[in-house]
Amino acid sequence: MKTPITLILSILFSSLLYGQTPQDSTTQKLYSFVKNINTFSYLYPQEKVYLHFDNTGYFLGETIWFKAYVVTASDLQPSDLSKVLYAEILTPEGQIMESKKLKLENGQAHADFMLKDSLYAGYYEVRAYTKSMLNFGEDVVFSRVFPVFDKPQKEGDYSLQIMKLRPRTKKVEDLREASPKYKSLNMAFYPEGGNLVQGLSNKVAFKITGDKGDPVETTGIIQNSQGQEITNFTTLHEGMGSFILYPDGNKYTAVVKETGKDKEYKFELPETQTEGYALQINNLDTENLTVQIQKASGTVPELLGISFVCRGKAYVFDILELQETDPLILNIPKKSLPTGVAQITLFNSEGRIWGERLAFVNHGIPELSIERTIQSDFQPFSPVRVDFVIKDNQGQPVESNFSLSIRDTQSLIPTSYTGNLQTDLLLSSELKGYINNPAYYFEQDDARHSLSLDLLLLTQGWRSSRWKQMVGIEKFDVKHGIENGLILGGQVLSAVQKKKKENIEVSLKIYYPDGKTQGGDCPTDENGKFNFALQDYYGKADLKLTTRVKGKPEHTRILLDRLFSPTPIYYEYYQTAIPTKSGNTEGNNIKITEIEESVDSISVDMVTDMTVKTHQLSEVTVTEKKKWSQEQEGLNRANVVYNVNEEIENIRDAGDSEWDNILDFLEKKNTWFTYVDYYTTYKGRLVIFVVDNMLAKISPLGIESAEPFNNFNKDKSINMNVKRSLSDISIDQVDKIMFVEDGSMALRYSPECGRIRVDPLTGLFTEDTEMMRAPRECYVVYIYTKKGGNPIKEPKGTRSTSFQGYGNVRQFSSPNYSSVQLPDEKDFRRTLYWNPNIRTDKEGKVSVNFYNNSNCKEFDINIESL
């Protein structure tokens, strides 16, 4: 056995412990892999985002206030890289309800999302990310799911939370990833290091879940192919546990009996490997991280490397070779690693990973000492003063910015989310999936909590693909640069074949909301891409792009880089499991009730306890701009609403073909809409079209067949051929399209519809009064055209559009009862005070003042800071 050489690495490998210099090619290759990791970290710095919210759940009509903290992953310090943060709120179905661009200053920003009364209740997701974060995958974005309830049935009574979900009759397309199909009981296995290796001691972690993905606590045994019991196991925490197995080529099966039930469940373990290494970590010692490596007898000895990486930076590197099957023990001083998740990878000179796993190094989670003094008699509308003294874990005053929320404890919605900025940046953001109650793993420093944390890392840890990108084995695709300001980026393709166009001159003229303009030119690179650096502005700016070759307009497709929003994830069990105040999950106190209109409803009774190459623009004066008004009729009853201009812009940004025909557009955008031979259906039902509140064609019959309706169709508002009629309206003329799954709505806008009958078999108009009444049995599509005349056709090689700048930021406000007579009406605010930027003085002191609501008797105070 060759003695391992431990190398403690500097940031850029300028020095090595013991002054070791790689000599042979194999050692040099191993060394180069780890050197590449830190080079990668330098060239492609990663960022992390955390959002602090004013509350734990919401009611329709309230506002979600939040503060964003953006840090560089390597040191968890405020990031000075990205200056643009994207924040989005998504509906339960994954539709982006609102998206904001926020200006980052010193890695911080704040904003809000309003929950309008017209929304449906449900579980809404708020997520945030910088554009360059998406280079590392969509799963790195910050995400938090909130329960959003209907307004209380009795104003101010928050003890009964009712969640009236979207009715089945108004179902919309679900854009979220499909959730896993769970059986009654499920068991997943995670061999330590990645594989089960024959003839060696293997630690196998597991996780057992129920039919909703919920953790199940139970016991079981492991059997070989002859049905003999090899070992037994029990869950330790959240359905997780582990056992030791010495595989000998048999097939192994876990036999589990759910607690309190007689039925047995059997699960096959992964196949065993005849060659390889067993990698085991013991993390219980306070001084050292103990690593045990053992080689299978059939494995050819070779020189190996083992790296210890934390948040993208390599800290420790060992070179070793195992000639025998005896285990090799490495003791890595924990002081050589920072607090956080360490990725341990065993590899050879070809970049093959023989073993990989995660371990948490805990030098103590930074915690602030917060002293607070509340001066209040808790009377209705009375003034409140809260004095804070904030110190670090060394007892020294902290002068810094904080975000502060003070809530009414009585109306606080319990949540399974117990994380904070520290646990999220150090733990949750490093793992796959949702981490329930991350605070549990740090509440006590004992063996049970340490082992539970280790099981969490074994079952929800990252895998080898990211390591292979960092060392240069697999390509790292940089799709997005670091946005150090507002950047308008895009790509030019040929008009027909969609080929990348190099050396095309792109001209830009942009009209800012404040009345100024900028203009400039930028040549496309070898991929047809271009970038313009814009001045900071708030709101939307209109712009015009033109492509030229040698000064002459060139017919092209101009794509803008703004279709990068991540795919909506499916909700995991705990993200929608609301505990009671006693800590139990919602399963014991949620009931399904029937609501009028077949609305699904849940009632919850809580009474129980990259830097981008950019081109600068010159500044000139703006001309007058016009804004078009939009129709709002039918909006509140619509199931689906298409802002046609935005949809067309998305089509153009994607480089897809456009359609002038409305029916082609709808068939492309909505999978439930079809038309064949002028016969249009939506979700299997006939469709009535209403254009600008006038009934349009709804039948495949020709004009000559309209005799039964001539008496009320003198203005020709009703025609008989859907496609021929709608083809008179180009898609560029349309403002909004709305789908309403309530045929009776047609009577509201077109009373003559009540006199129409439709044969349900042929879809034809008929005078037979026994036939189906069209407006009550059909679905309605409302089409509203743009006001102000037909749009002007753009010349070839030109694109006019708008571009979103930073979002305007509102300030949280609370009532002032100091100089007025106490109001007769009640004040039921649940968030009493929110300040995203409160700053302590040199002594760590700060005071805040606000007024109480009508009935608060206890405050819940939540404060966050880096």
UniProtKB/TrEMBL annotation:
Keywords: Signal. It comes from Dysgonomonas macrotermitis. It comes from the Bacteria. Residues 1-19 form the signal peptide. The lineage of its organism: Bacteria, Pseudomonadati, Bacteroidota, Bacteroidia, Bacteroidales. This is MG2 domain-containing protein.
